[in-house]
Amino acid sequence: MNRLLRIEELSVSDIQNIMSTALFIKNKHQYTLHNKVCGLLFFEPSTRTSSSFEAAIYKLGGQCIKFTPSTSSMKKGESFYDTICTMKTYCDALIIRHPDKCILDDIVKYFPSTKIISAGIGDGEHPTQALLDLYTIQKYHTRYPDKIVFVGDVKHSRTIHSLVYLLHKVKSTIKYVFVCPLQLQPSGEFEEFINMNNVNYCIWHTLDNIHIKDCDVIYMTRMQKERHINQNDNTLMNNVMILNNDILKMTKSNCIVLHPLPRNEELPREVDMNPKCKYFEQMENGVYVRMAILDIIFSENTETKNIIQTSNTIIM
Ligand code: NCD
């Protein structure tokens, strides 16, 4: 594995390798990135993805250069191409977040041997987030969930898109419920994927008992207001999509709540102490899973590490 741009590129054994390496790496000191420099290029805001990648790089013994577009020579008119050409000269791998869905393919075309990891591309995909989501889900549903309720901005949420693509590779029978406003239903490439691949899904407009009583995972997302054009945000978010402890009482005992964060009004702090809420653990897992991805991308030998899973069983 030389790069990670989208879920489609991963085989089931790649996924298995990342999951088992993440388990292994959590408790081991490995310095796979010793003497390596990674460039973090974020052209959209980020807290968790950028910081967890940075932490992962340091924990693996590497160094990083954080490129800040607003203080770079781009302000003097330097092109994106020259910027990438410069950063790939100084770095052994580039971790890139960008609003343009085609930009990573362009970089690969011009610099095919550069190690590139997507840190989230527009409203398209966020593959490393999906992998850490899967890692967290597997801890609580070792044989994968049967039913997942996704709540929020399904149309623009790249984390939902990548997670559905990823889960579909490992268990194609999962039932999905997309709870979202009419204007934010699945669309474009994502809608095409779920229809072409016979994904078992339905769309609902309220977070109510019918769907949540038997679900294994509730995956909350915020309204991606920065991606809404010609829409009045206040009419999109309504209180039938806000989670609370009463709703959680209706769920099964092993149901878990995830959220890629950042959160807005859809996930009030009153539910944080509810034992079903695992989003802070999910956030922590981001470091281990990103360490695993970096370890694999930088290691010569990409063979699956033979680990006997115990409590955190991985079934593939
Ligand atoms: C998400 C993202 O950037 O897509 N956050 C993240 O990476 N943890 C979700 C979001 O911005 O809503």
List keywords for this structure.
316 residues, alpha/beta, five-stranded parallel sheet, four-stranded parallel sheet, 11 helices, 36% helix, disordered C terminus, binds N-carbamoyl-L-aspartate
Entry summary:
This protein is α/β, with parallel strands linked by helices and 316 residues long. Helices cover 36% and strands 15% of the residues.
Describe the structure.
The chain has helices at residues 12-26, 48-59, 80-90, 103-110, 127-140, 158-170, 188-196, 209-212, 233-236, 245-249, 279-298, and strands spanning 37-42, 63-67, 93-98, 115-121, 147-151, 175-179, 200-204, 217-220, 256-258. It is α/β, with parallel strands linked by helices and 316 residues long. Strands 7-6-5-8-9 form a five-stranded parallel sheet, with helices on one face. Strands 2-1-3-4 form a four-stranded parallel sheet, with helices on both faces. Strand 3 (93-98), helix 4 and strand 4 (115-121) form a beta-alpha-beta unit. Helix 5 (127-140) packs across helix 6 (158-170) and helix 5 (127-140) packs across helix 11. The protein is globular, with a radius of gyration of 19 Å. Residues 301-316 have low confidence and may be disordered. The site of N-carbamoyl-L-aspartate has 12 residues, from helix 2 and helix 6.
Terminal Cα span: 19 Å
> Sheet with the most strands?
5 strands, parallel
Strand line-up across the major sheet: 7-6-5-8-9
Outline type: globular
Structural class: alpha/beta
The residue fraction in helices comes out at 25-40%
Could you give the count of β-strands?
Answer: 9
Order of helices and strands: HEHEHEHEHEHEHEHEHHEH
Strand content: 5-15%
Q: What is the overall pLDDT average?
A: 92
Question: Bound small molecules, which ones?
Answer: N-carbamoyl-L-aspartate
Question: If helices are DSSP runs of H or I spanning 4 or more residues, what is the number of helices?
Answer: 11
Cα-atom radius of gyration: 19 Å
Low-pLDDT ranges = 301-316
